[in-house]
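Give me the 3D structure for Protein unc-45 homolog B.
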Amino acid sequence: MELNTSSSSRHSSNSKAKAKAMAKIVEEEEEEEAEDFFSSSDCGCFLCAIKQPDARLRRASLADFFRELPYCDDDGGSNGQSCAAAVAAVWRAAMAAPDDPELPSLGAIRCMSLLLARALADAAWRRRGDNARVPYYAAHAIGSYTIRSAAHAELAVAAGSVRPLVALLGGAMTWVEQRAAARALGHLASYDATFPAVARHAAEAVPLAARAASTCVADVYATFVALPPSRRPRYQRELMACGGGLGVDAEDRKAEEWASQLQCWSLYFLSCLASRDVSSHAMICQDAVFLRDLSRMWGGLANGDSPAGVGLLRLLCRSPVGRAAVAACRDALASLCDLARSSDDWQYMAVDCLLLLLDDRDTWHAVADATAACLVDLVEIRQLGPRRRLGDAIASALLVDDDHVRGRELGAEAEKAIGSLRELKLERKEREEAMLRDELIKREILAKDKKRQGNDSFLNGDVGKAIDLYTEALELCPLSRRRERLVLHSNLAQCRLARHDADAAVGDATRALALARPANAHARSLWRRAQAYDMKGMARESLLDCLAFAGTWLDRRRQNKHTTRAARGACPKLPYCVARMISKQMSVTGLFAGVAMSCDKVGGDDCMPRCSEDGDGDDEDDEDDRDDDESEGEFAGNSAAGLKICTSGREPPIVTEDAWRRLARMI
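Predicted structure for Protein unc-45 homolog B (667 residues):
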């Protein structure tokens, strides 16, 4: 019995050993078969390698592929796949999975860097086959892999990618490659580990990025948009279409989007340098033309999430060198004032810039002289974006008592503005705090009576008397009656419009919007300021106010509890004059509009049609402005108040599908 047991045990042990040996043999045979299959397949290209299920084989094949690709003798490798197709496949992988470390660790980023260097050094190779696309795909792949990964950025720097990217940024090829290079350099400059490698090229890269941001719009228009389709570079058209086909209009829109991105990414690269190295501020500020135009550079509707020029300006205003340069540029200060009195999402950044300039004793005088008349319109803003008590900060910056600052005289306009601010925020506030409650109530009643008289005068056509009565009402109305003062300023803005006094209308409408809660949330004032900006030819500011108004208008129509059941089911419509204003301003605020029509002026029939005198406000009290302590009581007799829906008998405004698509994204 024991003998049988022992024999059985030995037999079992031998069987297990044989099974293990057989399994090992089978595994080796399978690996050999897989290697034979891969090597005998139609091509050892990137697409075949990336699909290899065995991780060890895949990694080995990809490493060999990335090692050999930069040195292929012609436009294709030995396997017949073109270099452009291979690099495009790497670019798609980078776009799909930028954080995946596999391809970068196997040499993908190094391969892209070497291809960039070869394309720059060998023009004949670049012109062969489809190799013209290689620099774009390679630079874009580097930018995609480094968008969120510091480790990938270190690989790019180690591979020597900074030098060829700077060359592309300088226009060594075309604006298409320049765009991809600006994106990649911005990412490399955003990490602590790789910033020093980029900063070593700052003396060369800063003027190149500034020039790219300043000239890219004109360059793209001249070298692509202005050309007939048959003369546009074929590879650029195919890159925009991602291999498909676009019509001429779609190509133009894509070119506008890419030009805007080139500008924004160039500014982002400069912002990364400015935020980490104060010494770069002097280099950035050397170009006076660039500094003048900086605050007017914006992401447009296509890149609304980019602070663009004002973001860089705010960084420059954090250093003495930057503040001195900005304060000396009157055009830059004027542009900051325009942005501060707009509905732009980056309005608070413009105010930040001006406050930083006013906080510097050496720049206070020049800045206060140029901006005080505009800034006083904003002193009653409570909160703007992430900034709280912003109006108080503006008032404190302007009402400084430093003898060093106040030693020099200001211009008459600035002195008047600061004097009115001192009266409002200090003297009048003290007087009203000392008044009895009954006296304040009496003044409030008198203010309302003046407002009613002003309404009557306006409706009777006596605009001058209406202005006087509204002004008297503002002087009587207690500061605590914020809502009443908002309405008075808004009514004054309407009177200024009737007199075609656009500057005064902008000021009064801005004061009304500063009193709104939240700021800029008063629909009638937005529309009035939009009309005033249109009179001044400031299309961007007018458009932004129109879009803000449209958002309020459409939201009210969707949420209005008093509409009929049928109306609730219908699609809400914008007033005719607002739709036409949006259509008009979108046609002249595109990036290429200024280049294409640099000599044309807005005029004649471009003046927007007025809604009737009794219909220039909303068609009901501003209950949905989130700021209603009481009925606004716009001009008396407004039984049918409202922005009329196309009552002029004209054809509806032509608003392109793309315009409405962008409008929908905004609101």
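The two ends are 91 Å apart (CA to CA). Let me know if you want a second pass.
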